[in-house]
User: Fold this.
Amino acid sequence: MNTARETTKAGYLSLTLRYKKPNLFALGTKVWVYNHGMVQYQEVNPTRGYLSCVTTKLHFGVDSASVIDSVKIMWPDHLVQVLTKVKANNLLAVNYEQPQPEPDDNPVYAAKPVFTPAANLFTYKHTDFSENDFKRQLLMLFMYSKTGPVIAKGDVNKDGLEDLFVSGDKNRPGKIYIQNTKGSFYEEPGSVIGDENTSATAAAAFIDVNGDGYTDLYVAKGGYSLFEPGTPALQDELYLNDGKGQLKPATGLLPDVSACSKSCVRPCDIDGDGDIDLFVGGRVIPGKYPMAPTSYILINDGKGHFSISSTPFDHIGMVTDAQWVDLDKDGRKDLVLCGEFMPITVFMNTPSGFIDKTSTWFNNMPKGFWFNLTVADIDGDGNDDIIAGNLGLNSCIHVSDKEPGELYYADFDNNGSIDPFFNFYIQGVSYPFVSRDELNEQIYPMRKKFNSYAAYAQATMKDIFSKEELDKAGKLSVTETRTLLLLNRNGKFVPADLPMEAQFSVVTNVIADDFNGDGKKDLLLLGNRSDNRLKLGSINSSYGCLLSGNGKGSFNYISQPLSGLCIKGDVKSATEIKVNNTKYIVVGVCNEALQFYKAQ
Amino acid sequence: MKQLRIYQTLIVLLMCVPRPGQAQKSDAAFTRYLQPAIFSLSKIMLHDVVNPPAASRYYAYCVLGAYEIASQHDNTMPSLDAFIIQYKRNTIPTGKSSYDYRIAAVYCILETGRLMLPSGYMLVDDEKKFIAELQKNKTPRKLIDSSVAAATYMAASIVDYSKNDRYGKLSAQLRYTPLKGDEYWYPTPPAYMEAVEPSWKTIRPLIIDSCNQFMSLPPVTFSKDSTSNFYGLAKEVYDVSIHPSQEQLRIASFWDCNPFAVATSGHMSIGFKKITPGGHWMNITGIAAEKAKLSFASYITAETIVGITLMDAFISCWDEKYRTNRIRPETYINRYIDIKWQPLLQTPPFPEYTSGHSVISTAAAEVLTYYLGDQFSFTDNSEELFEIPPRTFSSFRTAAAEAAISRMYGGIHYRDAIENGARQGKELAAFVITRLQAAGIKPIGNRQLAVDNRKP
Assistant:
């Protein structure tokens, strides 16, 4: 028999809440109980697991006082009821209507949000293929097929208004949307960009490749699916502007760049000869993760004819992003690039070629997943700083310098397929991420090696493979999963703190600009990934993370109601665009409609 | 008295020394180990939940070595390289007279299993038990040791041969995704398991030239229309299940042969195991061989030709299954006839057309008929382990026909998959038989069968 009430003299307050239809059980209601200078907080959130529900009654334990100071109830519509001098040891039934709730005096709800959802500038709903890259390589951490929708911005018809390219999906090719003077967009009928049934658009950039004053479009191909390296599906495409705002496919201008899937295309006049050259990052070799793909420097002959120029970073790794920035202010833009299991790497652009100067610019550059690299002068000191989007801290993968994540890969069983094994530390020991079932599926003979789950439970890589096998295997590592802000200070990039909210999810896109009109640069972090290996699970808790900057390198998280953002899903692309002198952001979410927000 | 004891000891010692020309034990002393050896393999495969095509592969390789050992002693037995694809004869280095090929053959079955099966280490116990039995029967230690050496050599040689059949490349293949379309296979309840062995057609067969050499007739065209032939096939399965006779129920469960039937209760699942169709027919072969009191050479020949046929039949059947990717009756019936219907047996996790049991049972029965004759009656107690009583058949073909139709009683196949599957099995077996004949493997013939076949 429970005699707690008699022996401890403690009390309680139970609340049964009734909201309006159809949510009569008041799910989502928040309740604060204030008593003797202490606050308790609960929400009506009764789900505890699959097919489960606990009581919707809220139960608070209170001390021996017979009267509770106050109880504040915030209903799902954010209207508030405050009850004072509430009798303890009581089951209180509270109805939404009695007493009449009022708006909260929390300034958050009164303020005008930074972003407001805008009416669609044009309608586009991305409909993705259903793919499962893990059927091809079981042990990857996430899929590589989901590259779209890709967005690029440029002035196609040279009317001073920004236009957009949006890549296609399974039902349609990529299209150009031209902005007109009335602030609406129309689909340019003559431009048909790519066919997602035969290849996947991974990146795009508007560049005037032939110097005729009209911007052309470079489309980098990528993805994973069932594509094979060295086939037309992975060959990039060039579309030339016919001078009337129509983009037509051109042939014979690009060398063979079909060795792998690409991640990014970053234009720059590398050799200073007046025409635009390109860096095209290699993302992954379909079917051969994690072997290093090829990244390309394509030099323009001035007429739009490109040729490959060999560099020290040809096979640097699985490049996710890159930026050109003149770090040493010598008039030649240098290349900063990043990638999976790679450090952010700096190659100085010198007359004698590219030289790796990472150790000059970073005291300790960790290896991360680095899904995005953005360069902007955050603190207004005239030097570009770096924001590098990463995996975040909201997953089961926790790594550090001392306890790195390590990826061993080789064709251990000599059957023509690469066997990648990712490990990370749990309680001081590095364990393989692969389950026994997955291990047996990947390498059949392992069924003999660990003949029970118990036998496998404590196994580390050294128990699965011999020292000789591990010595011969390739090895990649990762020591940082946080998204980082790196401030350019006296010739070095120094990490600066970001609010914890920046680490809630994967960051794949970053826009740096002053969004709240205070004259200081803010950061909009977008991302999420739901196409991960089942064991890793979906990482999707970002609804659009707005960080307000103080102009000196510090940021504050702006809560979702104040930022006005509700961007759910896997963000694959995002850009700012000016329409009728208003700043908009256009966000491409995989398998969802394009989202448009107006900035203040 | 001490002197007498010394003499006794001397006599005993003298008797233990193997002398050339010592009378060999009769075949029956060794054939009685063949069935248990093969059954030991079945037990391991039960433990490991080996799927039906993979099981047929293990049975085949495990008996191949035993046959080859015997053929190196008995020149009426053609060597494997006379009929097995890409097989090169590997002569055992141990001197023929120093070992007993029958001991070596039995041991080779266990040893090959030990090397190949995931839980093969469990067969070490069976090997030890076998040796202990031999010792109990006063088999000289030296004979045992050299027989084991010969067996070990041949088992390793067979495992080497097996490594080139592309089994090792299966894990590098693209995994299966159910095709989009109403007519295609979709995972079935209760476990909704992934499709089993979608790339089995890439395995090198033992006798047939290629996986699609015996392509089946095409299946009845899919249709949702209630007046269509296909709907009629599904309805037949459904109607049969409404009021099945006791005999139909017995037949369905006798040939269930599902290595892992999942039963669920709330969040709990249990897998109920049985030997696979291939294991069932290897056992039938043993039953027939024992009834016919076959010599050791003939017994191992029977097991080998059936093992080979089973392996190739599964390759042929699985090629067809994953070419047609046909929807199972359970899925179709739930969608278009009766959402609550469940088949009597659990639908196995692979596409429907053609029926595995129909192909492999018919093929095995044809080869057994070739070797031991038609009208060979037998009582099959293979399923007693699973508390299913024995059944008596008047011939191998009758048994195979019952195995085939049992799949409709079980609610897991349409009639065309059964009839065309049986046809497929028969054609495949006819080819195998011509190859066996050409190699010199002749039927036993009535005069060699020791028992009156009119008695069950």
User: Anything to note?
Assistant: DSSP finds 15 helices and four strands in chain B. Residues 29 and 137 of chain B are 10 Å apart (CA to CA).
